[in-house]
Amino acid sequence: MAVSDHVDLNTFIEGVKRRNPGQPEFVQAVQEVAEDIFDFIQDKEAYHQAQILRRIAEPDRVVSFRVCWQDDKGNIRVQRAWRVQNNNAIGPYKGGIRFHPSVTESVLKFLAFEQTFKNALTGLPMGGGKGGSNFNPKGKSDGEVMRFCQSLMTELYRYIGADIDVPAGDIGVGGREIGYMFGQYKRITNEFTGVLTGKGLEYGGSLIRTEATGYGATYFLQNMLKTQGKDIAGHTAVISGSGNVATHAAEKVTMLGGKVLTLSDSEGFVYDPDGMTQEKIDWVKELKNKRRGRISEYAKEFKGAEFHAGKTPWGVKCDLALPCATQNELLGPDADTLIRNGCIAVSEGANMPTNLDGVHKFKAAEILYAPGKAANAGGVAVSGLEMSQNSARISWKEEELQRLLVDIMAGIHARCEEYGKKPGSKVVDYVKGANIAGFKKVADAMLAYGVV
Ligand code: NDP
Ligand code: 2IT
């Protein structure tokens, strides 16, 4: 008779810390999930016997490799890259690739772990993975980025495949980088398959993939507000970041009648008291994607706007907040400030932007608070739809994809409500709901497989 694993939460977390020294982001992500899952599995012996949570919190594998490339001056540069394949119980590994100097194994392990729950929540058959490199694309020429991407793929191609592991974009990886990586994969393997998503429309990409994460996070916000008879129209929004997710969140909030007051990057934030218009947002997209400039330029371009160097935007009074830049960009005191200033809803476009202290504060204040794994799942969901289109060798129409994105976000919201509603109250703990709904699907598939 096997002995079941009824350790308490603290003992479990201590074990995670011991097994993952120097990986604070990974430990943080596991702790946030474990806080809810321990409650849920308390009386469910099968999950204990099979050690399901312990197994999900141990990646299937982590591939680490060297990437050499030559810069424009002829110098040889050496970077480190990884692919973390966390769990493929419900489908091929799926998740983005990040290029940023802050990328470490810990960051990618946390992202692959989160992705496992997020992908399950979409209802589509995708496992969880993440990859990336400490390569800094800022200030690099197109040629340098191309040589780096090709060199990375020359190693990565061994571990991925349309039915094995399907990477996509993330911070520092957009259409340009996906094009270079897909081209190299195709060249090495002589195969045209849907091995990456976020591709250009000319070579197998899906309509609305670019917009999907920011739009999806806004739809999730809309769904949450609806439970209180409220809407985005007429409300002010503070958004961080100014990349793919932030600009498309700003666009959708604006389209739905909200007033976007801020955007940011790693150097500070811009505050526009008049609110952003579609023209201003288009200008930011062009600034970031074509000129690869800094958000501070916004304040020089648009009258009345101010740039606040070295600051995050959480001190600006607002009704709605959408953190769309990076992990741990919104801390406990920022959560206090937002709550004190009357913020009614937070929808995370980024992955784990709020630290544990902040999460606990939002939960305690019972404001509408959606964690990234629920709110930003629209991006990977449309990636899943891109995979389906590639497998069937067809392209769906824009209206169909827009409808599917709206439906998928409503479905995720419903799953969070189902598992997150506080007994005897109307309040929904979206963190708990997302964690349990995501966990249950993956865990039940793992139970079906036995010990593998
Ligand atoms: P982009 O590279 O397009 O933009 C990233 C933005 O965040 C930039 O404005 C960048 O500023 C800012 N940023 C990055 N790192 C930091 C930092 N350490 N401190 C402050 N600001 C920072 O990335 P995305 O918009 O694609 O990604 C943003 C977030 O959304 C990430 O958490 C990502 O994991 C998540 N996400 C992305 C999805 C997608 O489909 N792209 C899907 C789901 C989640 P700067 O230019 O100064 O670096
Ligand atoms: O964090 C994420 O969900 C992404 N970066 C998108 C992943 C994907 O495979 O589209």
Average pLDDT across residues?
97
In whole angstroms, the N-to-C terminal distance is: 19 Å
How many beta-strand runs?
A: 12
Please indicate the percent range of residues in DSSP E strands (runs of 2 or more): 5-15%
Small-molecule binders here are: NADPH dihydro-nicotinamide-adenine-dinucleotide phosphate, (2Z)-2-iminopentanedioic acid
CATH superfamily of the largest domain: NAD(P)-binding Rossmann-like Domain
Class by SSE composition:
alpha/beta
- Catalogue the unreliable spans: none
Helix content: 40-55%
Name the overall outline.
Answer: globular
CATH fold-type name of the largest domain: Rossmann fold
Write up this protein.
By secondary structure, the chain is of the alpha/beta class. The protein folds into 3 domains: 9-56, no CATH class; 61-194, Rossmann fold; 210-370, Rossmann fold (3-Layer(aba) Sandwich). Helix content is 48%, strand content 15%. The protein has 17 helices and 12 strands. The protein has helices at 9-19, 24-41, 45-49, 52-56, 105-121, 142-156, 175-189, 209-226, 244-255, 278-289, 297-301, 332-340, 356-365, 372-375, 377-392, 398-420, 430-449, and strands at 61-70, 76-87, 93-99, 128-133, 165-168, 236-239, 259-265, 268-271, 306-309, 320-322, 345-347, 368-370. The strands form 2 sheets. The protein has a 7-stranded mixed β-sheet. Strands 1-2-4-3-5 form a 5-stranded mixed β-sheet. α5 (105-121) packs across α17 and α12 runs parallel beside α13 (356-365). The radius of gyration is 21 Å and the shape is globular. The relative contact order is 0.13. The structure holds NADPH dihydro-nicotinamide-adenine-dinucleotide phosphate and (2Z)-2-iminopentanedioic acid (2IT). Residues 94-96, 115, 168, 170, 197, 351, 379-380, 383 line the site of (2Z)-2-iminopentanedioic acid. The site of NADPH dihydro-nicotinamide-adenine-dinucleotide phosphate has 24 residues, from α9.
